[in-house]
């Protein structure tokens, strides 16, 4: 029974440390990113994951009781509320941003379709070039291998 308690404690401690690690990564992201939407993404992901891991660790350490059920409900609530609130704040930022061109590009559907068509054409050209290069490469390699073998045979004949 004591071994089970230790395993449960260590697993809970591991989850708590994972949550704290995610919070540290979140804080680094918040301070390193320049644009507000990038910072919000780091904060939202860190909150959702970090709190989830931390509370899961507390649930494991606490055991299965009513408090653990309440903590589980907190996790579920935060998993629904944090992304929704972050999305609403991000939409507010996008609609009120006075320097949109500085941060991102607004595209119409037609521009998006044209860009996808250009990307598909570039990919097709790259595949064609790659196929042509692949068709030529074995011949070149084969010729180099044959030349190397012939050179080795010539040097053996000269020595022997």
Task: Describe the secondary-structure layout.
Layout: H1 2-32, H2 36-62, H3 66-96, H4 100-103, H5 109-159
Helix pairs in contact: 1-2, 2-3
The residue fraction in helices comes out at over 70%
Number of helical segments?
A: 5
| H/E topology pattern | HHHHH
Question: Structural class, please?
Answer: mainly alpha
Q: Strand share of the residues?
A: under 5%
| Uncertain runs | none
Largest sheet: none
Mean pLDDT: 84
**What spatial form do the alpha-carbon principal axes imply?**
flat
Please characterize this protein's 3D structure.
With 160 residues, the chain is mainly alpha-helical. The protein has helices spanning 2-32, 36-62, 66-96, 100-103, 109-159. Helix 1 (2-32) packs antiparallel against helix 2 (36-62). The longest helix has 51 residues, at 109-159. The protein starts with a helix and ends with a helix. 9% of the residues are buried. The model has no long low-confidence stretch (mean pLDDT 84).
